[in-house]
Amino acid sequence: MDWKKDFIWGTATSSYQIEGAAFEDGKGLSVWDVFVREKGRIFEGHTGDVACDHYHRMKEDVALLAELGVGAYRFSVSWPRIMPHGTGSVNETGLKFYSDLIDELLKHHITPYVTLFHWDYPNELEMQGGWLNPSSPDWFAQYTAVVANAFGDRVKHYFTFNEPQIFTWLGYDRCTHAPGIKYPVGRILAMCRNIALAHGKSVQKLRELVPDCRVGYAPTCGNAYWPVEETELLAAKAKELQDSIGAEDWIHSSAFWNELFIKGRFHRQCPQLFGDDLPELSEGDRLLISQPLDFCGMNLYQGTSVCLSEAGELILGELPAGHGKTGMGWPITPKAMYWAVKNFYDTYQLPLFITENGMSALDVISLDGGVHDPCRIDYLERHLSELKRAVSDGAKVEGYFLWSFLDNFEWEKGYDDRFGIVYVDYETQRRVPKDSFYWYQNTIKS
Ligand code: GCO
To answer: Strands 397-403, 352-356: parallel, antiparallel or unpaired by DSSP?
Structure first.
């Protein structure tokens, strides 16, 4: 691998988390615009109404991306910004925002990677049952066609869904994310089937309208298990666990969604777990859902350790007291990067992009005017070296998108956690590149 010539270095963001302009220029409501107004849902009542005001500061932000020196930028399109009602009429001003963004990126030789769905679902469609509505796959295909027709001449890389395991699990089971409607498991499974059909129809539409496109999806790695000692026994156990789905957190597992999106089937454990609740997948469904993909994303932040106790029993998730953590309290587990990538590639042989990796920290602007984030640099260095190890062990990884370019709206945590390599002062909207920005700039160069 020629890390300089062939490897794609990028950063990632998403529409609701950075754009703001939530009610401007003809944009329709998303389920997040509604959810953030429900008392107690979001930290200190924060909303994405303004966020990083990227909608009005796009050129300044792209100039910063160009200074950073990335070859690619992963962003998402807000469905209700370009289709206010979710279906039917198109908002030309909304389309123009993304068209201008794409032109600005290309002017700076930055390749756009577009995520079609990063959770800001049109509220009017949610009112019609959302992903439970049997028409939802067609709604998504229609939206895909609008994006493909508008940008397909310049955008060749697409991710259909960002983290289907998160917006379903937190949106309709744990209810900490929009729309926060609690469904019984049977309904969630029916929703998963429609989401998978929507993914298949979207891939079909992209291939039809953008023949030279490359398509994938961006799951989180919900179950990244890593062996504390790299013995055969523990490595085998980590892989077995990564390929399994638990009874309680099946929906959070990457295995459930990779089997559905890549193989067009429910995971082998589903029949026992869900019995009659499990919807039928016809042969037609299978073929549609498992449309061949060009690559798969992986949003990787952390993993669960696998080790043996003194008595020789298997213990999960035991980390020594004082083990490193991020600002959100997530354990820092760089080996999860190696094992998640290696196990995924051994199982599916699909080229991978790390579509998100990074950490939240309680960053402040120091007295010297800089933002010093050595912990983030350490986190990134360790994860990138584990990624390099996985590549040298044969995994085909095409690129890496650091999460995130800007500090932004971290869903139910609001602005309390900062994931950016660029600090955002939300009072003034001033951008301050952190030390990690300059570290990443140098890493890309070298
Ligand atoms: C996710 C989402 C991002 C989050 C990031 C930090 O992976 O949950 O894609 O929108 O902000 O991961 O939690």
So the answer is: parallel
